[in-house]
Amino acid sequence: MAFQQVALLLLILATTSLFDAEGYDSLDPDANITIKWDIMAWTADGYVAYVALYNYQRYRHIRAPGWSIGWTWPKKEVIWSMLGAEATERGDCSSFKDAIPHNCEQTPTLVDLMPGAPYNQQVRSCCKGGVLRSWVQNGAPDVGFFTMTVGQSETTDTDVRLPTNFTLKAPGLGYTCGSASIVEPTKFPTADKRRVTQAFMTWNVTCTFSPFIARKMPTCCVSLSAFYDSNIVSCPTCSCGCRSNTSSPQICAERDAVNSFEPLVRCSDHMCPIRIHWHIMMNYKEYWRVKVTITNFHYRMNYSDWNLVIQHPNFDDMARSFSFNYKSLSLYGTINDTVVLWGINFFNDILMQSGPDGYIQTELLFYKDRAPFTLEDGWAFPRAVLFDGDYCQMPPPDIYPSLPKIESKLYYTSISVIVAAIVISVVIIFVTVYVHKLTVK
């Protein structure tokens, strides 16, 4: 009985670890969305709070329709007013007769204002429609910001109770938020840098992304080819779903049969809206060259500010990307095997929907380190590919393009012929010299 209990406990721990690991990305180990909450002033029945959302994810955007956050109030708090954001519902404010709060819900849900909001409703870093760009493409952690006046908290500076059960949708599922934790009060320097003020109280909430929670199917796939193999390795069948799956049919259409306004993709064996193709173009003496093509199979979707993450050991010796921006992630000290690639502004930063212009491509030039470099055993193909933060389905390694076996046989045959010719030549020379000596005698 004791053995069975121990085995059950180990199984539970292993399962828990597995699910926790889904929220950890080895290519972006410190990725998170941090919600910072600063109390800046006390009021008669509550306080004024500054709230900021920081995107500390290197390559994952928060895309339209943007973020929404929520929490549970510890008492009977209400939001009297807001700038830079708004609650999606007012809630039941029937108990208020004179002044009506902006929100009376116990668990409010807040969203960012849209661009172009009235100036008297704006604050700095607000009004982006909830969109936050990735850290690499933005050059720094992108931030969304709003202020609110909280009432009915019955709070003083000594008995503030923190909200609980924070949630973040960005815009769909995938993020899990921890508990609020009190940190050092935020300091705010004035514009002239001569004076610094600070919040009365500050707490942080950290939210991390889990692909396991976000979706069950990939949204992109990878195909492969090489100059030395006439075969093209296609995306695995049903990479992003199957057309024939009656229990969960995928919406797709042929190229000239798009008649509805439903989100749909071009019919294919892989059923992915995005396909990335990696083609080994050339093998020079000191370099080798790859072409990367991104194709959009989605009839209703333009991808703006897209990015591509690729893991390959030769990125440590990358010479040039010809038509994409790129930046190394440099995750583990001197190891540099992962880069982020993205479009050039006003040139290819928008990946158009499926059609004649629904693809973009670049060429990557690598220095050749002769120690690890080889075209055998799939070494020249990527280890992992992500599009807009989602892992793409890779083909199985046993079907990667391979060097023709006939070349190897011809190579070894040629070597054998040369060696045999040398041996025969040496024998002929030796016999000729020996016969000449006998003749002279």
What does this structure look like?
The strands form seven sheets. Strands 1, 2, 4, 7, 9, 10 and 13 form a seven-stranded antiparallel beta sheet that branches. The protein has three domains: 192 residues, Immunoglobulin-like, CATH 2.60.40.290; 183 residues, Immunoglobulin-like (Sandwich), CATH 2.60.40.290; 28 residues. It is built from four helices and 28 strands. The chain is an alpha+beta fold and 441 residues long. The radius of gyration is 31 Å and the shape is elongated. The N terminus is likely disordered. The longest helix is centred in the C-terminal third of the chain and has 36 residues. This is COBRA-like protein. It comes from Prunus avium. InterPro entries: COB_C (IPR056900), COBRA_pln (IPR006918).
CATH architecture of the largest domain: Sandwich
Strand count, sense and closure of the main sheet? 7 strands, antiparallel
Text of the CATH class of the largest domain: Mainly Beta
Overall mean confidence score, pLDDT: 86
